[in-house]
């Protein structure tokens, strides 16, 4: 039997991120877009399980892109909801992430320079994609990097821990910001969950992805 | 032409007046150049003219904001690449190529797109005839079967992109191809008919129900222009 994934509940209400992200966007994004990735992922995994049983290797290979895209959509959105928080909450202040902020300053000089670099990366995405702050572990060393990914490619490389991500698909902002994506990128800083970011920064890959386990 | 769409400079009017026939203009993607710069082409119909298939609000933002940003950015980066070429800076030219592809592609794609749409009152949705109709029937059996295949291709785009009916310049036959982001139809293939599958093309009206947009857009397809692009 293939695993079946289910939509994880949002850790806050649909209107909790207003005025920075509207209720309508959050509701469509979570209940429709994220759900569609899960539905399509489950369908692809079911077909794959059948292809494994029947030793149908060509079908297994042909399913890989659909699995990557839809699993990526599920992974990315699951991480995204958790790394956002209502602007009025303590989690939405970077003071909730002392160790992470220390390394951000060591890497980019100060928080403002980091935000500028992150914004430039997000606005440089050509088409649909995501921007991530990633912790990269190489042996005993670790460093931070800003990484952009196309479409729904997830950050799942060896030693890579996604700290927080921003969805740059047009569906993430269009109903509210229209073509003004720079304003969306400015405003998203008000609702980044720095507490979650700190936990992911201090934890392992498995810790960051545990949200996915709970929905199997 | 709706007067609200007129923002034509004297220079451009002069070029327009001297513009060649419609079929040649279609081949040029309706792209107009002033002193070597790309400019936003006028829409050949009002913003609201494609309703209810595409809302006036979408058309206005799509043309005035999205398309115009591609035009501005393309001009900016082509100036930079010309400067790099003048300095024989090969690395800088290579680094700029993806930006030329993206923004130049965005300009070319949208210019072709506006032209291959038309209000129903101006023939939008009227099925193709002649050579294009036979080419589609040869490759797909019928126009309905073709539309179904085209919509499947549109729905299968993972991320932003376009679906095109293209003509293979080697064999002359037509086929459906999808392109990521703003990759333009160049090289072996000739663009005949394109549909924008970026979310900005439908989101204000259809939100996540993109299949409804793909279905509705066939009512405003300008097959006459598509026929002229076929060689
Ligand atoms: Fe099984
Ligand atoms: Fe999304
Ligand atoms: Fe577009």
From TrEMBL, chain A:
GO terms for cellular component: mitochondrial matrix. GO terms for molecular function: manganese ion binding; superoxide dismutase activity. The keyword Phosphoprotein does not apply. Its EC number is 1.15.1.1. Mn(2+) binds at residues 29, 77, 167, 171. It catalyses: 2 superoxide + 2 H(+) = H2O2 + O2. Gene3D superfamilies: Fe,Mn superoxide dismutase (SOD) domain (1.10.287.990), Iron/manganese superoxide dismutase, C-terminal domain (3.55.40.20). Keywords: Manganese, Metal-binding, Mitochondrion, Oxidoreductase, Transit peptide. Residues 4-85 form the Manganese/iron superoxide dismutase N-terminal domain. Its cofactor is Mn(2+). Pfam families: Sod_Fe_C, Sod_Fe_N. Its main location: mitochondrion. The keyword Transit peptide applies. It comes from the Eukaryota. Residues 99-200 form the Manganese/iron superoxide dismutase C-terminal domain. It is found in: Mitochondrion matrix. Belongs to the iron/manganese superoxide dismutase family. Destroys radicals which are normally produced within the cells and which are toxic to biological systems. Destroys superoxide anion radicals which are normally produced within the cells and which are toxic to biological systems. This is Superoxide dismutase.
From TrEMBL, chain B:
Its EC number is 1.15.1.1. It comes from Massarina eburnea CBS 473.64. Residues 39-118 form the Manganese/iron superoxide dismutase N-terminal domain. Keywords: Antioxidant, Manganese, Metal-binding, Oxidoreductase. The lineage of its organism: Eukaryota, Fungi, Dikarya, Ascomycota, Pezizomycotina. Destroys radicals which are normally produced within the cells and which are toxic to biological systems. Signal peptide: none annotated. Residues 128-229 form the Manganese/iron superoxide dismutase C-terminal domain. Mn(2+) binds at residues 62, 110, 196, 200. PROSITE patterns: SOD_MN. Belongs to the iron/manganese superoxide dismutase family. One of its GO terms (molecular function) is superoxide dismutase activity. Its cofactor is Mn(2+). This is Superoxide dismutase. GO terms for cellular component: mitochondrion. It is an enzyme of class 1 (oxidoreductase).
């Amino acid at each position: 039997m293939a695993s079946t994934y289910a939509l994880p509940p949002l850790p806050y209400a649909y209107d909790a991120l207003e005025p920075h992200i509207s209720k309508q966007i959050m509701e469509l994004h979570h209940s429709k877009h994220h759900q569609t990735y899960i539905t399509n992922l489950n369908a692809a995994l079911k077909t794959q399980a059948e292809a494994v049983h029947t030793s149908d290797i060509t079908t297994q290979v042909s399913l890989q892109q659909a699995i990557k895209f839809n699993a990526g959509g599920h992974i990315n959105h699951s991480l995204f909801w958790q790394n956002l928080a209502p602007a009025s909450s303590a989690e939405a202040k970077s003071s909730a992430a002392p160790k992470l902020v220390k390394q951000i300053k060591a890497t980019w000089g100060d928080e403002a320079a980091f935000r500028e670099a992150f914004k430039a990366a997000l606005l440089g995405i050509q088409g649909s994609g995501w921007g991530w702050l990633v912790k990269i572990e190489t042996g005993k060393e670790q460093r931070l990097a800003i990484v952009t990914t196309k479409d729904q490619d997830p950050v799942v490389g060896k030693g890579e821990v996604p700290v927080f991500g921003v969805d740059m698909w047009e569906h993430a902002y269009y109903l509210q910001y229209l073509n003004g994506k720079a304003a969306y990128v400015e405003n998203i800083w008000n609702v980044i969950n720095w507490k979650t970011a700190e936990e992911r920064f201090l934890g392992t890959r498995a810790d960051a992805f545990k949200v996915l386990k709970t929905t199997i | 032409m709706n007067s609200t769409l007129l923002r034509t400079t004297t220079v451009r009017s002069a070029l327009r007046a001297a513009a060649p026939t419609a079929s040649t203009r279609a081949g040029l993607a309706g792209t107009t150049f002033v002193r070597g710069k790309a400019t936003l082409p006028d829409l050949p119909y009002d913003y609201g003219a494609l309703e209810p298939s595409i809302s006036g609000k979408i058309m206005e933002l799509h043309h005035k904001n999205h398309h115009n940003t591609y035009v501005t950015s393309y001009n900016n980066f082509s100036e930079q690449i010309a400067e790099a070429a003048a300095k024989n800076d090969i690395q800088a030219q290579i680094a700029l190529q993806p930006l030329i592809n993206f923004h130049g592609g965005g300009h070319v794609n949208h210019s072709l797109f506006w032209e291959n749409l038309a209000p129903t009152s101006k023939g939008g949705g009227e099925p193709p005839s002649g050579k294009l109709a036979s080419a589609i029937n040869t490759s797909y059996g019928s126009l309905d079967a073709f539309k179904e295949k085209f919509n499947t291709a549109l729905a299968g785009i993972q991320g932003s992109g376009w679906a095109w009916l293209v003509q293979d310049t080697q064999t002359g036959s037509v086929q459906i191809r999808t392109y990521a982001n703003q990759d333009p139809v160049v090289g072996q293939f000739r663009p005949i008919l394109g549909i924008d599958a970026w979310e900005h093309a439908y989101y204000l009206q259809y939100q996540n129900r993109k299949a409804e947009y793909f279905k509705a857009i066939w009512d405003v397809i300008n097959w006459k222009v598509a026929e002229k692009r076929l060689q």
